[in-house]
């Protein structure tokens, strides 16, 4: 065989090797399986944390709402108590008690009066 034929044959074999090499190439992923597992675990932790945070915020909102309702009830009760205190003062006045006593048939006896002092 001549040199020209050998060079041609060698070129064809080289081309076949290049084609075989390109076909044999394995596509490598840019993440290893370990990195994928770590990524999934991290994503799960982020989801769990966000759900936990939202749940806590909703509980805090409910407690604050309950506190405001109780404070409103306390305020209303204080108002009722002060109104009742005013009524007690009005109804316990000396003139009113004396009028009621007279209406019931009681009379005032100056000789039978005892003075009581508050401490």
Automatic annotation (TrEMBL):
GO terms for cellular component: cell division site; plasma membrane. The chain crosses the membrane at residues 37-55. It is found in: Cell membrane. Keywords: Cell cycle, Cell division, Cell membrane, Membrane, Transmembrane, Transmembrane helix. Coiled coil: none annotated. Its main location: membrane. It comes from the Bacteria. One of its GO terms (biological process) is FtsZ-dependent cytokinesis. Pfam families: DivIC. It is a single-pass type II membrane protein. Essential cell division protein. Belongs to the FtsL family. This is Cell division protein FtsL. It comes from Neobacillus bataviensis LMG 21833.
């Amino acid at each position: 065989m001549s040199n020209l034929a050998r060079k041609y044959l060698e070129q064809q074999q080289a081309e076949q090797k290049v084609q075989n090499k390109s076909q044999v190439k394995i596509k490598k992923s840019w993440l290893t399986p370990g990195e994928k597992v770590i990524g999934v675990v991290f994503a799960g932790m982020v989801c769990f944390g966000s759900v936990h945070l939202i749940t806590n915020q909703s509980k805090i909102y409910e407690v604050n709402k309950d506190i405001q309702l109780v404070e409103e009830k306390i305020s209303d009760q204080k108002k009722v108590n002060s109104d009742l205190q005013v009524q007690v003062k009005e109804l316990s006045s000396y003139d009113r008690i004396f009028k009621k006593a007279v209406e019931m048939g009681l009379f005032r006896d100056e000789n039978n009066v005892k003075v009581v002092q508050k401490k």
